[in-house]
Design brief:
Blueprint (H helix, E strand, L loop, with lengths): L1 E6 L2 E8 L5 E6 L6 H12 L9 E7 L6 H8 L2 E4 L2 H9 L12
Parallel strand pairs: 3-4, 4-5
Antiparallel strand pairs: 1-2, 2-3
């Protein structure tokens, strides 16, 4: 839908819709994602979770997770996709043959 979407707690890196038509909030980090990054993603998702039963998907993208982050992600029902800055640069250099999400491993 958009990138750098301003919301009350800050700026959402990527706001989109997945292949199941679920609103998806993506937070991207250049370094290891800490518990604070997980909490930040959750705050962004909370902006859209105003209706009961309305599903919002949250994905944290970073080269790796810092200690304790995986447990917090799991407890909040959030996802993690590893992506290094080098791989991201490779993707962005290519013409838009594929979307960035095609490169999440």
């Amino acid at each position: 839908i958009t990138a750098e979407k301003p919301v009350e707690p800050g700026f959402i890196d990527i706001l989109g819709v997945d292949r199941n038509n679920t609103l998806t909030v993506v937070e991207i980090k250049r370094k290891a994602a800490t518990k604070e990054a997980v909490k930040q993603l959750k705050k962004y998702m909370d902006v859209f979770m105003v209706e009961p039963g309305h599903r919002v998907r949250g994905i944290l993208v970073a080269p790796e997770l810092a200690s304790g982050s995986q447990r917090l992600l799991a407890s909040l029902g959030l996802e993690y996709k590893p992506l290094s800055p080098q791989k991201c640069a490779e993707v962005l250099k290519k013409k838009r043959e594929k979307s960035l999400t095609d490169f999440f491993s």
